[in-house]
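Re-running Pyridoxamine 5'-phosphate oxidase to confirm reproducibility after the cluster update. Everything else is unchanged from the original entry.
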Amino acid sequence: MSDRLPIDAATRIRREPHRQVDDRAVLDAILDEALIAHVSVVRDGAPLVLPFACARDADSILLHGSTGSGLLRLASGAPVCVAVTHLDGLVFARTTFDSSMRYRSAVVHGTATVVSAAEKEAALRLLSDHLFPGRNEELRASTPKELAATTVLRVALDRVSVKVAAGPPEVDPDDVEPRSVWAGVVPMAVIAGQPLAAPDVPAGVEVPASVRRALERASNDRH
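Result of re-run:
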């Protein structure tokens, strides 16, 4: 894929177009930070949106779910819209009209395809390493029954809108609000708390490297 994202009628941003970003590296960073994607399909003529665990795999995004999921069966081979958003801050402007948020978002348009049985285990390992970095090396391999109960969908990243809102509040030159009214940005980020061991973990069992990596990732992802 090119280092620039193509823009067409579906991916062109019309509201605040100056915030549209066509840099592929920005898209990759948004998706590589994401743990959840919201997937939209049409069921019986009505829209349906559900969250899925996700991970980027080169030029596609992987979506993880159970074979029992009705949405997964519905989405297989169907047009879908996949959205990822990171909230980076709340913008306190001097008017409610100008108050807003700072965020990075990606919207993927495409057709969801089921990852084949031959590729499923590798796809699940990639998803696991993204969600739980290093955990694969600490656990047994998935059983055939577990693999059969899991579905992974793939959506290509060839039609994507990326929008980024950053920086201080925008100031309208005609704004008459006094500068004595505070304005600025309150940064927002997802943070990790202290690990909570399951009730059946014996005393003295150390927190594994995979958990420590997840804690480090949450710390490094703060903006």
